[in-house]
Amino acid sequence: MENSTTSPNVTGFPIDASLVPWAHSGVNLYLIQAMSITCFSLTCIIGTVGNGLVIWITGFKMRKTMTTTWFLNLGIADFSFCLFLPLYITEVAMWGNWPFGQIMCKVTYFTRYLNLCTSVLLLTAISIDRCVCVMCPIWSRNHRTSRSAAIISAIIWFFSMAAGSPLICFSNILYYRNFSECSLTYEAWENIIDYETYSVIMIAFGITTFVLYFLIPFLFITICYGLIAFKVFKSKRIPGSARTLKMIITTAFCFFFCWFLLYLLCIIEIAGPNIMRHHLEMTLYTLAQCLAFFNSCLNPIIYVFTGRDYKQILKKSIPFLLESAFIEKREPAHI
């Protein structure tokens, strides 16, 4: 049984079994449990309400533009993640015991990964789009359409679903007497692959995730905003809406800030599993996971506060502020 489970850390999420009381005696598990439940509950409540408002406003209240299409899809990605958070909160409250069955185990793993992939790819697409608007304003005015944003978003969703399919295959329920754990395991495939092969697959999957969904997007986004900064420095003004640009930059920065620690810990674990003491590793993973999950409720807050002074925030309703956040001063013709 000890070889049937491998750490899902390489996929960007810490070991669910780490919250089992007998797993690590040197850690204040009750404090970690309380911190996790509090953080995840706040993320769930704020994220569900906030992203629900974003979906309602960009999907039903506003005219379809490229900007609203981007943020509609970003809101859907975060909303779907927050929708399944109560299952994970229950698991943490039950010390890692999973009472929801095998199908929901697979769905939960899949939605976590889907949120990661779609969010970062959408942020990359948004950054490239904004860079094109600044660098080639005339071309973008004639070619930017909500239809093209919808097509690109659909491709991103399809690619992200395909990328997350290994998690559907390998996520399963492991049973220990009266305890059931939702984890990544090769048990269902042990007639085809052995433990060593499975470990290599998971490590390769983790490294690929880091490169494709953190490192490369980070480089693309950095280059895009570097070009924008160069253009602004030369012209002394920002073509298009400065508020929208500020909102996108803040959203991208917060994404990478929230996910950086979790990826760093995963890389350390792959490089040398015994580098950190276990109680330190567990504490840092809990903090890293809280940060990564919190990113899913952060975007609506950014949309409300970016480019607004506090007097405006107090005077206006949140739906109004969200709607005005997605309006650009110079929006090209859209289909």
Task: Describe the fold and architecture.
By secondary structure, the protein is mostly helical. The protein has helices at 29-61, 66-83, 85-93, 101-135, 137-143, 146-170, 195-235, 242-271, 278-305, 310-315, 318-325; strands at residues 171-176, 179-184. It has one domain: Rhopdopsin 7-helix transmembrane proteins (Up-down Bundle), CATH 1.20.1070. 72% of the residues lie in helices and 4% in strands. It has a two-stranded antiparallel ribbon with strand order 1-2. A hairpin with a 2-residue loop joins strand 1 and strand 2 (179-184). It is globular and about 65 Å long. The chain starts with 28 loop residues before the first helix and ends in a 10-residue tail after the last helix. It is a multi-pass membrane protein.
Give the gist of this structure.
This protein is mainly α and 335 residues long. The protein is built from 11 helices and 2 strands. Strands 1-2 form a two-stranded antiparallel sheet.
Salient structural properties:
335 residues, mainly alpha, Rhopdopsin 7-helix transmembrane proteins, two-stranded antiparallel sheet, disordered N terminus
Protein topology:
Blueprint: H1 29-61, H2 66-83, H3 85-93, H4 101-135, H5 137-143, H6 146-170, E1 171-176, E2 179-184, H7 195-235, H8 242-271, H9 278-305, H10 310-315, H11 318-325
Antiparallel strand pairs: 1-2
Helix pairs in contact: 1-2, 1-3, 1-9, 2-4, 2-6, 2-9, 4-5, 4-6, 4-7, 4-8, 7-8, 8-9, 9-11
